[in-house]
Every structure is written in C-alpha cells, then in structure tokens.
Amino acid sequence: MPTFTYTARAVNGELKTATIDAATREDVVAQLRRQRLTVVKVDDAGDAKKKPTGGGIKMRDIVIFTRQFSTMINSGLPLVQALDILAKQSENKSLQAVTRAVVFDVESGHTVADALRKHPKAFSDLYVNMVAAGEAGGILDTILMRLATFMEKNDNLIRKVKGAMIYPGVIMTVAAIAIAILLIFVIPVFESMFGQVGLALPLPTRIVIGLSSFLRGVGGIAVVAGAVGGFFVIKQYYATPNGKLQIDKLMLAFPVLGDVLRKSAVSRFTRTLGTLISSGVSILDGLEITAKTAGNRVIQDAIMASRASIAGGDTISAPLAKSAVFPPMVISMIAVGESTGGLDEMLSKIADFYDEEVDAAVSGLLSLLEPVMIVFLGVVVGGMVVAMYLPIFDMINAVQ
Known about the structure:
Elements: E1 3-9, E2 15-21, H1 25-34, E3 38-44, H2 59-74, H3 79-89, H4 93-107, H5 112-117, H6 125-137, H7 140-197, H8 203-216, H9 218-238, H10 241-253, H11 257-278, H12 283-292, H13 297-311, H14 317-322, H15 328-340, H16 343-399
Antiparallel strand pairs: 1-2, 1-3
C-alpha cells in the first residue's frame, strides 16, 4: 500500500506533519478529516517534493473546468466541495493533480487566486488576476463565466490565425517534396536517355539537369543542412529581445499576412483589457497582463508605453497612436471610452468588430493564396516537364 506524507492543522491551530499508509490521496484526506484535522498538503512519500506544474493541459480543458466551476458556485456549492468534484471528474490527469493541489491550498486558508497562482502553466496571470478580482467583489461565478467566454473566443482567434499561416506552409512543403522527387529520381532517367542519343541539349534542359546533379551530390546535403541551420539561427535570434522586435516588425510588414496579424493583435488586446477592466482589475495591472499576452513585441512595447503614460497621469490612447500599429478608429474609440468612463464596453465593441475583421482577412488571405500556389506549382513543375521534352522534340525533328 502506498505511503503518503501529509501536513494538517489541528483544532488548536498546531501544524502536524507525518506519514500514513492509504490506497489513494482521497483516503488520506478522509482519514484526516475523521480525526478533525484540516488538510494542508498530501504528497506521495516517494516523491514528496514533486509539485504539479500544469503541463499537458489544453485550453479546452481549462474552459470546461472554468464553466463547471462557475456553475457549481452559482448553484451555492462551497468552494472546496466544488473544486473537489472538479478534481474527481476531470479526464485530464495533469488537471486532476493541479486541482487537488488547489483544494489542499484552499482548505489550508489560501484564497482561490493564491492557490491557482502556484500553477502558472495551467492558469495564466490573466486568469489568476480575474479570479482575485471576483473573490474580492463577491462575484466569482460571474467572473469565471466571463473568463470561459473570453478564453473560447481567444482560442478561436488563435486557431484562425494559425490556420492562415499553416496552410501556405503545408502547400510549400508538399511542393518542395514533389520537386525534390522529380529532380532526384525522374530527371536522371531523362539525362541517361539524352546521353545515349548524344544530342546538344537546350539551355532549360541543361539547367534542370544541373539542378538534379547538384541535389544528388553534396549539394543536397548542403541544402538540407543550410535549411536546418538557418531555422535554428533564426530561432536563436528570435529568442533575443532585439531579434524578436525586428522579426515581429517584419511579420507585421508582410502585405496580406501582416494585416491578419495586426487585426488579430488588436482584437486580442482590446478583448483582454476590456475583460480585465470590467472584472475589477486595475487598469495598470490590466495593461501589464495584456502586454504579456500580446504575442507581438511591437504591440507589447506600445501597450507598456500606454501603461507608463497612465502611471504618469496621461491618457492611454496617445502612446498607442504613436506606435503606428493601431488603426485610427481604434485610437478614437479608446479615447471616447476614456472620456466617457465606459472604456471596458468600448474595448469589447472593438474586439467584436475586429473578430469579424480577422475572419474576413483570413478568408481573403486563403482566397489569394490558392491561385498563387496553383500558378507557382504550374510554373515550376510545368517548366521542368517542358525542359525535359524539348530535346525529345529535337530528336523527332532529327529523325524526320
């Protein structure tokens, strides 16, 4: 039978730490409660120092957890009981472990926000701060439902943008594989046939055969090594502050993709900040949290400049206008929201509008990419085929 190490608080407030044999953690908790002890922590004796980190938890799992938590609190269930039910019914093992740890922390006297803050991989700063605001205002169920709605919309936005970026990448990868197969396996057959005939080859044919010879020799290894090396160099450069700033600027400057990224960044910024402010989080804390979740260094710098502006007694809209990232309409609506005291409502309206704009931008990007990819593949593959058939036409003319 497994051995567990527990820490519990007696009725007189004294902390007690010891080991106990039980089948599961739930059995340990049940035994301690029968002894009128308040459970603080229960760990496996063989791995007492290990803490759940929240790895392997998907956004969908957190959304379901949040909605169910909100429903149970709204129904009048106590916090600990609601969390205990969530821990038992969750299908994700990592989320189960995290929720059990949260239950123990809440039973020992911590707030829900403080208990969630110990698991940053599962619960973001935005999540924790909104829960803290909900606890302070006595509207935790409302805040949790708002959080779930926010996360669902944010997740849909991220998937749309990723889908727009993945599609051309997949097409280009398939095209590169098809071209490599033609050059490595098909072209050598034609090259051997042309060598036996001894005809002078046209320039396009010589170029294609030269590329085939290059890929089949050391050049193929050099191309693969260069691609892998280039990927890691760019990845390392992107990890530096200046590299992230320059690459993010470049991404925003792309003709069509940059428009999608900019609109999605505006939507995420306005929805996140609007949700935080309407939930009772201070605007300074809200801007700091929003900057961390911006996903683009240019946007992040603009948001942090706005935070510094507000801390100095100025408005939020002026630094955003200087960044040249946010459209004039967004700046004007934020300025109106500040002046009327309805900034959270104005931000939510902007977010709803730009969600639709992202949909339209993604559809436009995909509609543009499809014919471009078809033309590209047609020119490259068709050009190679024509280059290989030119000598055959010369052979037919010579025979005639």
